Amino acid sequence: MKSLFHRISLNLFSSIVCCCLFFSTASATGSDIIKNDILDAIEKKYSGKSFEANFTQISRLAALDIIEKASGRASFSHPGKMKWEYMEPAHHEIITNGKVLWIFRPDENQVMQGDASQFFKSGAGGAFLSDISLIRKNYTISLKEITVDYVEMDLVAKTKKSDISSIVIRVSQKNSEIERVVTYNPYDDTILFEFSGIQFKKIDPGVFEFKVPYGVNIIEMD
């Protein structure tokens, strides 16, 4: 009888372990399916397309507990073209044609210019929005939160970057639009972008070029 009890106990234990392994594997597989479905949806929505959106930006410098807010309108075009036009708190523009980056501050009568790839290679500034294929290519992706309204995914760079440790994107369940992007650096500083009024449309390529106005000081960025 004692031996029979041990055999039943072992069989029951084995069954429980198998069930746990099955449900654990099934859960992981389910998460992968959801993740891939979301990635497929945003790639279909954004790949090779141009769009414009209003944005608000909240930047937090953790060490000094400083928070700054800004807002404006942004334009994106595949591949690698962006224009961020800040209207508040002060007017300035960040423009790139995918090769050259310009930062124009009319109040200071200056434009900074440099190699765009050096400044956006880690995904800073929402750079992947101008080439959505970079998400799968450059990041390890995991699900962070799922609600009826949105899905949040955590993106960790496959190649370690000194300025960006991770990026969290929020994707609408309704229309697969990226509503929020939050970047984190190794010092716990964050930059949050929220997008609204997204419009997919053709954009004149000239929007992503910048002609330095006469008399404006030019500063070369390394």
Can you summarize the main beta sheet?
A: 12 strands, mixed
Order of helices and strands: HEEEEEEHHEEEEEE
- Number of beta-strand segments: 12
Reported by name, the CATH topology is outer membrane lipoprotein receptor (LolB), chain A
Portion of residues in beta strands equals 35-45%
Q: Unreliable segments (pLDDT under 50, ≥5 consecutive)? A: 1-28
Q: Compute the CA-based radius of gyration.
A: 23 Å
Q: Helicity range of the residues?
A: 10-25%
Structural class: alpha+beta
Strand order within the widest beta sheet: 7-8-9-10-11-1-2-3-4-5-6-12
Q: Can you identify the CATH class?
A: Mainly Beta
Q: Estimate nothing, just give the exact number of structural domains.
A: 1
Task: Looking at this protein, list some descriptive labels.
222 residues; 12-stranded mixed beta sheet; 42% strand
Structural overview:
It is a single chain. It is built from three helices and twelve strands, in the order H-E-E-E-E-E-E-H-H-E-E-E-E-E-E. It is 25% helix and 42% strand. The N and C termini lie far apart (81 Å). The protein has a single domain, classed as Lipoprotein localisation LolA/LolB/LppX (outer membrane lipoprotein receptor (LolB), chain A). With 222 residues, it is an alpha+beta fold. Strands 7-8-9-10-11-1-2-3-4-5-6-12 form a twelve-stranded mixed beta sheet.
Short description:
This protein is α+β, with helices and mostly antiparallel strands and 222 residues long. It is built from three helices and twelve strands. It has one domain: outer membrane lipoprotein receptor (LolB), chain A (Clam), CATH 2.50.20.
